[in-house]
From TrEMBL:
Name of the protein described by the UniProt record: Acetyl-coenzyme A synthetase
Keywords per UniProt: ATP-binding, Ligase, Lipid metabolism, Nucleotide-binding
Family: Belongs to the ATP-dependent AMP-binding enzyme family.
Reaction catalysis annotation: acetate + ATP + CoA = acetyl-CoA + AMP + diphosphate; propanoate + ATP + CoA = propanoyl-CoA + AMP + diphosphate
Coiled coil (UniProt feature): none
Domain spans labelled AMP-dependent synthetase/ligase: 84-471
AMP-binding enzyme C-terminal domain location: 532-610
Length: 656
């Protein structure tokens, strides 16, 4: 699997120009760790525009739950991403909006984006939004969705983008948790030729929710757009009427820039809080160094703005670097599996950044969908969200990238703000190992911990992946629950940030992510807590207990799979499964619906009552038709409280 590929790849031009006198990756990395504050201080001054200079670089202690960078400095993120480019590149495209229907793109220049965001900021102010207020954004990838985020940044409001694929219940929960008085949405969006109504989801989410005072509704399809309640405001009319002038709010470096919800292994989703200056710096520097992104580049990150990848590599990173950012509304297969490469060709994209699940779905189709299009503009292809399998890696590198384009397999998390482990930037001749994220980014110091909390030394070892030093891009807290933040990330082991992933450090000292060590699963790069799905299933009046696990799936990477026990006296019927699926789609999202739900009379538990998920995973993913075939793989089950349930579960699964 992990065959070593020696590739002669061209030198990374912008391997952080500030430090080029030091040498290549290894020398700069060494300096970034040894002189950590000096390293980030230099970059903070050369890459960001400060309203008020900072005197303190960092004051952080994982032990004390304190993370702070450039604390007495002030800046404005919008001015850093847009205003400062006006003089040199006001007429350059800031955004290319590649809509679902091919051939329908729209270009927004930096000057136009500046004007749009200023008007948007004035609209928000007119609705009473002030610095520090939270604003919910339920918007598809589009210029207005991006402008909504930037308008918040401009006036110091904290945006909370909720992926426009989450259900009304999930949106409501996030609006309440962040206490949002204003919601921004579009009437809908198109995906693969299909119209998806978003406004109706918002209506349902805020029904009888007095907290929400205003819903700003933008237009995707004017005919479908319906303003239904007295809270609704037509965003287009409001923008047209709003003044163009608006002062940017000088923000303290450590003020929150945004909240973004993500799933954990237990409890409700966590609203991770990212900072103004540290986050922006980390977004800007990683975009520049990992993707060799220069001003004027055309950066194609196809992630939705509802995820961290969209925040960092569709919005903040490319704009902070003066690049043109692609906003991709569509799906990889529409109108045919050549859509990505047609988009690369049409806009002469210099970077393309997507997810393994999409790449896997495309490689099954013929090469003609690639070869038809000119991809010679590409200098980087990125992959994110889950490990990339060798087949997809080779396909990207050799087919899409004509064996010339380095693949940036980027390991990182919502919590980390930006890329953490990735083979690029690299020096000429560096080796690539398909399926391995390989090397830490500058300033990032991975450590592996064993179960006792001791640091694992040496190479060819495994452990829980942790990060030893604070870096500017790390999330600062969980909205409203700093204790949870400390417990989940900072107090698992002493003095390190715990990622939740396991990793292998190979013979060369490089890292391969081995997957989550907690009950979090990854469906098409979307993170889900199995506990969340279990909670949702047990809300149904006919289910008493549920166990959800993730099992491997060829395209999506993983899919949820459920085992449920019915309540006493409930007779099993064919409706149960449908009702369960419907409920998960309603409460969480369609992508959270289990691939199958098996009704069983018991679950494999230890005598202390802990569900043995390992056994469920084996049973669910097995192709075996006969219990005797699978029994040897299950290990010793005699220690279970009720060993006999295992065979019963197997038989039920075979029947379903
Ligand atoms: C989890 C984070 C970071 C943006 C997208 C997902 C897994 C992510 C990789 C990769 C192996 C990866 C990890 C991580 N993951 N990228 N390149 N190789 N695993 O963000 O929803 O916060 O999920 O995704 O398990 O912990 P997220």
């Amino acid at each position: 699997m992990r065959g070593r590929l020696q590739q002669l790849l061209r030198r990374t031009k912008r391997n952080l120009a500030e430090f080029k006198e030091l040498g290549g990756y290894s020398e700069i990395y060494k300096y970034s760790i040894e002189k950590n504050d000096e390293f980030w201080e230099k970059l903070a001054r050369s890459r960001l525009l400060w309203e008020k200079d900072f005197t303190e670089v960092s004051d952080s202690s994982f032990k004390d739950g304190r993370i702070s960078w450039f604390a007495d400095g002030q800046l404005n993120v919008f001015d850093n991403c847009v205003t400062r480019h006006l003089a040199d590149r006001g007429d350059q495209a800031a955004l290319i909006y590649e809509k679902d229907e091919p051939g329908n793109e729209e270009i927004v220049t930096y000057a136009q984006l500046h004007s749009l965001v200023n008007r948007f900021a004035n609209v928000l102010k007119s609705k009473g939004v002030k610095k520090g207020d939270r604003v919910a954004i339920y918007y598809p990838v589009s210029p207005l969705g991006v402008a909504a985020m930037l308008a918040c940044a401009k006036i110091g409001a904290i945006h909370s983008v909720v992926f426009a694929g989450f259900s009304a219940d999930a949106l409501r929960q996030r609006i309440i948790d962040a206490d949002c008085r204003v919601v921004i949405c579009a009437d809908g969006t198109y995906r693969g030729g299909r119209y998806i109504n978003l406004k109706s989801v918002v209506d349902e989410a805020i029904e009888n929710l007095d907290l929400v005072e205003t819903v700003l509704v933008g237009t995707r399809n004017a005919e479908a757009k319906k303003l239904t309640t007295e809270k609704d405001v037509d965003l287009d009319l409001a923008l047209a009427a709003a003044p163009e002038n608006c002062l940017s709010e000088p923000m303290n470096a450590e003020d929150p820039l945004f909240l973004l919800y993500t799933s954990g292994s237990t409890g409700k989703p966590k609203g991770l809080v990212h900072s103004q200056a540290g986050y922006l710096l980390y977004a800007a520097v990683t975009t520049s160094a990992v993707f060799d992104c220069e001003p004027g580049d055309r950066f194609g990150c196809v992630a939705d703005i509802g995820w961290i990848t969209g925040h960092t590599y569709t919005v903040y990173g490319p704009l902070a670097n003066g690049a043109t950012s692609l906003l991709f509304e569509s799906i990889p297969s529409y109108p045919d599996p050549g859509r990505y490469w047609a988009t690369v060709d049409k806009h002469k994209l210099t970077q393309f950044y997507g997810a393994p699940t999409a790449y896997r779905s495309l490689l099954r189709h013929g090469d003609e969908f690639i070869e038809k299009y000119d991809r010679s503009s590409l200098k980087r292809i990125g992959s994110v969200g889950e490990p990339i399998n060798t087949e997809a890696w080779e396909w990207l590198h050799h087919k899409v990238g004509s064996s010339k384009v380095p693949i940036a397999d980027t390991w990182w998390q919502t919590e980390t703000g930006g890329n953490m482990i990735t083979p690029v930037p690299c020096d000429a001749g560096a080796s690539f190992k398909p399926g391995s994220a390989q090397r830490p980014f500058y300033g990032i110091e991975p450590v592996l911990k064993n179960a006792d909390g001791n640091t694992v030394q040496g190479n060819s070892v495994d452990g829980a992946l942790c990060i030893a030093k604070p870096w500017p891009g790390i999330a600062r807290t969980i909205h409203g629950d700093h204790e949870r933040f400390r417990n989940v990330y900072l107090n698992v082991f002493d003095d390190v940030y715990t990622t939740g992933d396991g990793a292998h450090r190979d013979q060369d000292g490089e890292y391969t992510i081995t997957g989550r060590m907690d009950d979090v699963i990854n469906v098409s790069g979307h993170r889900l807590g199995t506990a969340e799905i279990e909670d949702c299933l047990t809300q149904l009046d006919f289910i008493s207990e549920a166990a959800v696990i993730g099992i491997p799936e060829a395209t999506k990477g993983e899919v949820p799979y459920a085992f449920v026990i019915l309540k006493e006296g409930v007779e099993e019927n064919s409706e149960h499964k449908l009702l369960a699926n419907k409920h998960v789609a309603k409460v969480i999202a369609k992508f959270a619906v289990p691939k199958d739900t098996i009704i069983v009379s018991g679950l494999p538990k230890t005598r202390s009552g802990k569900i043995m998920r390992r056994i469920l995973r084996k049973l669910a993913s097995s192709e075996a038709k006969d219990f005797a075939q699978i029994a040897p793989e299950l290990g010793d089950i005699s220690t279970l409280a009720e060993p006999e349930v295992v065979e019963e579960i197997f038989l039920k699964k075979c029947q379903s």
